[in-house]
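Q: Could you fold this chain for me?
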Amino acid sequence: MNSNKKSDKPERKPCAFRGYVQVYTGEGKGKTTAALGLALRAAGHGFRTYVGQFLKGQPSGEILAVRKLAPLITIEQFGRKKFLKVTEDFEEEDYRLAEAGLKKCLKAMLSGKYLIVVLDEVNVAINLGLLPEKKVLEFLDRKPEEVEVILTGRYAPESILARADLVTEMVCRKHYYEKGVRARKGIEK
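A: Sure. Below is the predicted structure, expressed as structure tokens.
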């Protein structure tokens, strides 16, 4: 046996960066904004972020801004073009888009291209039954040591909270929506 023969597997270098699992949840505004702020900060240091947005398929300010920061930030949406109301029955396409989205996020996380992977609104997708909680936990089981993973959305299940290294709960004390103010371009969308 030749001890000088190289293995077919690529040699994995020791990790200089330890990635954690962060969860931004709660009823208050700012969960997606916090995740995108982290992506912006990372881009300033030359780090790449992948953002997978569940339940979203509409144009937004963040999509337009991220185009200007490519390839440091990549964003993909896994929702229908119309606004999805949580009170309506979901279509087969909603389940298919969520499942395909989780697969794309996994591929991005394992690609070695991204230091940060954001699963935006994934907690809501779990809560609505569009994604099985078990599949998201399996996703976390496969997280490389050097990748930071952020999961956003209301209703984060206890199993996700238990797996997280950091949990921030946004609390709404007051909101102008209560006075009938609709989502505003550049502020909420």
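A (continued): The longest helix spans residues 92-110.
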